[in-house]
Amino acid sequence: MASILNGKAIPFEDVFNDSVFILMNVSRHPVYKNNRRTDDYDGQVYEVCDTMDFKRIKVKMIGQMKPIIENDKLLELRKEKPVFVEIIGGTITMYEIRDENGHPSTIDSLNAEEIKLVDAQL
């Protein structure tokens, strides 16, 4: 039986204790056609770490063609201190998928309306 949460967007606030995360990495979100990755991209992916359990997650911003910070600049800044971001309008959507053998599993898709750099401390 399928989960009642399948495909429903759950607000970040219902899952995470805070909307501020440590920014670890920034990359482009690739476009796939016919289950194959293309050279095109349609947004950004922000890998962040929550400040309570220090779990890493990837949050997509589809449609954002220019990142809030270039990854090279981020890596340089992280040598001195953590870089923090606030996730605004974040949602988590669970999807049920099947592997090549037909075995079911679930994945989470994390998206944000906005991500901005903020001053914060651990």
Major sheet: 5 strands, antiparallel
First-residue to last-residue Cα separation? 42 Å
From the spread of the alpha carbons, the general shape counts as globular
Beta-strand content bin:
over 45%
As a whole number of angstroms, the C-alpha radius of gyration is: 16 Å
Spans of at least 5 consecutive residues whose pLDDT stays below 50 are none
The spatial strand order of the largest sheet comes to: 4-3-2-5-8
In total, the number of strands is 8
Tell me the structural class: mainly beta
Number of helices: 1
Mean model confidence by pLDDT: 93
What percentage of residues falls in helices of 4 or more residues? Answer: under 10%
N-to-C order of helices and strands: EEEEHEEEE
Structure characterization notes:
By secondary structure, the chain is mostly beta strands. The protein has one helix at 71-78, and strands at residues 9-11, 20-33, 36-50, 56-62, 84-88, 91-98, 104-111, 114-118. It is built from 1 helix and 8 strands, in the order ββββαββββ. A 5-stranded antiparallel beta sheet has the order 4-3-2-5-8, with helices on one face. It has a 3-stranded antiparallel beta sheet with strand order 1-6-7, with no helix packed on it. The termini are far apart.
